[in-house]
Specification:
With about 850 residues, the chain is an alpha/beta fold. Among the domains are: about 120-135 and about 150-270, Carbamoyl-phosphate synthetase, large subunit oligomerisation domain (Carbamoyl Phosphate Synthetase, Chain A, domain 4), CATH 1.10.1030; about 310-410, Rossmann fold; about 445-505, ATP-grasp fold, A domain (Dna Ligase, domain 1, 2-Layer Sandwich), CATH 3.30.1490.20; about 515-650, 2-Layer Sandwich (D-amino Acid Aminotransferase, Chain A, domain 1); about 695-805, Methylglyoxal synthase-like domain (Rossmann fold, 3-Layer(aba) Sandwich), CATH 3.40.50. It contains 31 helices and 27 strands. A seven-stranded antiparallel β-sheet has the order 20-19-16-17-18-21-22. A six-stranded mixed β-sheet has the order 6-7-10-9-8-11, sandwiched between helices. β23, α25 and β24 (about 720-725) form a beta-alpha-beta unit. α10 (about 255-260) packs across α11 (about 265-275), α12 (about 330-345) crosses α22 (about 615-620) and α18 (about 450-460) crosses α19 (about 485-495). The longest helix has 20 residues, at about 215-235. The chain is globular, with a radius of gyration of 28 Å.
């Protein structure tokens, strides 16, 4: 998406503007925001209305960030009776009314972020079904500049229009693949357009294949030609004039370095020697017609700088970049609270982020907003001009953490946990040494560099194993393997994608309970924010597992031991700020799975469950305000249950198996609260649109390891009035143990089979657990049919148990205010 519209004539633009207003009037929109989508035929100019939404939409957030005009804020005031001419434009300090349409003197480009690597079975062709999980936005003085900034904002390893890397088995048909990618839109289409020009296709041919407007194609062609000239001239051709020209085209230092085959630091030093530095311009809604005091800034080159940094004490907060699976809006919540905490302490807050969907990129969340990519080059340039007292990197997920070492080396001060302590937690050998010193346990683990070594080490550790490459360029990152055949196959795949980096092998803990802990440390005192028990057993990614705060089955002794081990690790790692620990409890033995000395996905959940803003408290600790000084002296508690329930996008991806595993695939979450565990689970499941019935017909099919623990679940379902059916192995086991159960064919055994029953609406609840590649493949159609027919299903026994507890409270409709819930903490 590009703003303003660059390929329309003025007449077409006015016709679309008038048509949109006419649509609103005809629909009867009296106040508020609306969204109208048009299509314009490039040959005849015919205009067609695709759809109209009489509400704010995804594009409203984008338009607000692109122009600086706060659409939702203005729409809310209009809804309570204001008129546009009564409201003042805050960005211009009231110099213009809200009735002035925004005018921009720059170009904005938004590019979606996809996650097809998480769904290898999904069709990655782009259609009318939305498949992206996030987006990045960039602002530049030209389309070419903003396009290249947007590409590197995606955080997919791109520095711009990088060449496409083909798999070895694709090399014979590369041109054919390029043509296909032009014809059938995919997630990397823009790069394939550039690749087509590199391979000699003409602009007309690319246009005929892609149907992309020739103006945009010409802009990309020019960038490819500039790249070719730069590469041919080499580093010797990089004089001051040429370097400035490249920067104005939007080329990153890293991309220029690739073209002339030198290190990025060499280009940065060359720029500084020639005094070529970015200029920062202001987003003001009026194309500089009126002055603005609002510091909403973007970078460009070769122009006057409008940054006007102040002499106040400043703290910079680095955001999380585009939303993606594993790093979403939870981290933005933390960044916003950090900015608010710094403002409370009298610091001027500087936010750096490139995600238009977030609150952190609202111009009034921080004192100064830099809408820039989160790369070392871009962040260092802002540090250079603003000279902050410190930088907070703990709250934006992995994105800022990757910059920590380089920022520190460049002289920037990181507040909170030091980069070395962060590295200590992430370095497998150093962390293992720390745990040994503290006397804490980890599951047996080894590191292998080739398939032969992996097989030998696996025999030492024992199966099943959790395997993961230490470095992955997309694709399958983690898996559970049951034996040597699966491990051998995985190693061949993992080593292929991991560029010969080591593969990590961990003993998988069968039937273990996984536990998440969020804690705050001020360097001395450690406060436990929340101990969360996962409902699904270990083996399901923590981001995909439902969890309960407080724990619903852990003993007081185990909870005390978890808290003590967390304190030991926080002090051992010299944490200042937030820390997340993941434990696994097998029997009575506690194992440390992972420690992250940063904000985690669960921080907003814990904050809402306890009523204490953890991120805000932790941010103050980072700048020297201790926990005692803040009045936070005891571990946080809750006397009601809170359940975090993930939301999955499986229905959007045809052909994807909705089974849970060690690879995170949820894209959101909901929270349910109640004064009992079952009531909270019921609320949470209803919030993510799980459809449950209190009776009907239940289908059971579980792996051999789960048959014994299925028995109580099956008996309770029967007691509740469910009739039971099962496939051969499970049916035989249940009947032998006195459970009344019907028999149904597997899909491979002929019709009528289980999928027929699901599609005919004869199944109301499914419990299906499985392991091993073949068994998972055989039962895929059961889970997929359940998803499409909206039948409630559990792929773990623990999930089934929680659903049974929820059924007791499914139709309860009591309402409690947050004040009542938090008050119960003191009165209970």
């Amino acid at each position: 998406t590009v703003a303003p519209a660059l390929t329309l004539t003025d007449k077409e633009y006015q016709e679309l503007r008038n048509a949109s207003i006419a649509v609103l009037r005809k629909i009867g929109v009296d106040t508020g925001g609306s969204n109208v989508q048009f299509a314009v035929c490039p040959d005849t100019g015919r205009i067609v209305v695709i759809e109209m939404n009489p509400r704010v939409s995804r594009s409203s957030a984008l338009a607000s960030k692109a122009t600086g005009f706060p659409i939702a804020k203005v729409a809310a005031k209009l809804a309570v009776g204001y008129t546009l001419d009564e409201l003042k434009n805050e960005i211009t300090g009231g110099a213009t009314p809200a009735s002035f349409e925004p005018t921009i003197d720059y170009v904005v480009t938004k590019i979606p972020r996809f996650a097809f690597e998480k769904f290898p079975a999904a069709n990655d062709r782009l259609t009318t079904q939305m498949k992206s999980v996030g987006e990045a936005m960039a602002i530049g003085r030209t389309f070419q500049e903003s396009l290249q900034k947007a590409l590197r904002s995606l955080e997919t390893g791109l520095n711009g229009l990088d060449p496409v890397e083909f798999e070895p088995d694709e090399r014979r048909d590369e041109l054919m693949l390029v043509r296909r990618e032009l014809q059938e839109a995919g997630p990397d289409r823009l790069r394939y357009v550039a690749e087509a020009f590199r391979r000699g296709l003409s602009l007309d041919e690319v246009h005929m294949l892609s149907r992309i407007d020739p103006w945009f194609l010409d802009q990309i062609l020019e960038l490819v030609q500039v790249e070719a000239r730069t590469a041919a001239a080499g580093v010797a051709g990089l004089d001051a004039a040429h370097l400035l020209e490249l920067k104005r085209y939007g080329f990153a230092d890293a991309r220029i370095a690739q073209l002339v085959q030198v290190a990025e630091t060499d280009i940065r030093q060359l720029r500084r020697r020639e005094d070529i530095r970015p200029a920062y311009r202001r987003v003001d809604t009026c194309a500089a017609e009126f002055a603005t005091n609002t510091a909403y800034l973007y970078s460009t080159w070769g122009e006057a700088c409008e940054a006007e940094p102040t002499a106040k004490r400043k703290i910079m907060v680095l955001g999380g970049g585009p939303n993606r699976i594993g790093q979403g809006i939870e981290f933005d919540y933390c960044c916003v609270h950090a900015a608010l905490a710094m403002r409370e302490l009298g610091f001027e807050t500087i936010m750096v982020n490139c995600n238009p969907e977030t609150v952190s990129t609202d111009y009034d969340t921080s004192d100064r907003l830099y809408f820039e990519p989160l790369t070392l080059e871009d962040v260092l340039a802002i540090v250079e001009i603003e000279q902050p007292e410190g930088i907070i990197i703990q709250f934006g997920g992995q994105t800022p953490l990757k910059l920590a070492r380089d920022l520190e080396a460049a002289g920037a001060r990181i507040v909170g946990t030091t980069p070395d302590c962060i590295d200590l937690a992430e370095d497998r050998e150093r962390f293992q040494q720390l745990l040994n010193e503290l006397g804490l346990k980890q599951p047996p683990n080894r590191t292998a560099r080739n398939p032969e070594q992996a097989l030998v080490l696996a025999r030492e550790i024992g199966y099943p194993l959790v395997v993961r490459p230490s470095y992955v360029l997309g694709g399958r990152a983690m898996d559970i393997v049951q034996g040597e055949d699966e491990l051998g196959r995985y190693m061949r795949e993992a080593v292929k994608v991991s560029n010969d980096s080591p593969v990590l092998l961990d003993r998988f803990l069968d039937h273990a309970i996984e536990i998440d802990v969020d804690a705050i440390c001020d360097g001395e005192r450690v406060i436990i924010g929340g101990i969360m028990e996962h409902i699904e057993e270990a083996g399901v990614h923590s981001g995909d597992s439902s969890c309960s705060l407080p724990p619903f089955s852990l003993s007081p002794e185990i909870i005390a031991e978890i808290a003590e081990q967390t304190r030991q690790m926080a002090r051992g790692l010299n944490v200042v700020g937030l820390m997340n620990v993941q434990f696994a409890l097998q029997g009575d033995v506690l194992y440390v799975l992972e420690v992250n000395p940063r904000a985690s996905r669960t921080v907003p959940f814990v904050a809402k469950a306890t009523g204490v803003p953890l991120a805000r408290v932790a941010a103050k600790c980072m700048v020297g305000v201790g926990l005692e000084e803040q009045g936070v002296t005891h571990d946080l508690e809750s006397n009601f249950y809170s359940i975090k329930e993930p939301k999955y996008p499986f229905i959007k991806f045809q052909g994807v198996d909705p089974i849970l595993g060690p690879e995170m695939r949820s894209t959101g979450e909901a929270m349910g609260v109640g004064f009992s565990f079952g009531a909270a689970v019921a609320r949470a499941q209803q919030a993510v649109e799980i459809h449950a019935t209190a009776s009907g017909q239940a289908f059971l099919s579980v792996r051999d390891a789960d048959k014994e623990i299925l028995l109580p679940v099956a008996r309770e379902l029967a007691e509740r009035g469910f009739s039971l059916v099962a496939t051969e192995g499970t049916w035989k086991f249940l009947v032998e143990n006195g459970v009344d159960c019907g028999y149904v064919n597997k899909v491979t055994q002929g019709r009528p089979h289980i999928v027929d029953l699901i599609k005919n609406g004869e199944i109301d609840y499914i419990v299906n657990t499985t392991e091993g590649r073949q068994a998972i493949a055989d039962s895929f159609s059961i889970r997929r049919s359940a998803l499409q027919q909206k039948v409630n299903y559990s792929t773990t026994i623990a999930g089934a148990r929680a659903t049974l507890r929820a059924l007791d409270h499914w139709n309860e409709r009591g309402v409690h205010s947050l004040a009542e819930l938090y008050a119960s903490k003191e009165t209970t």
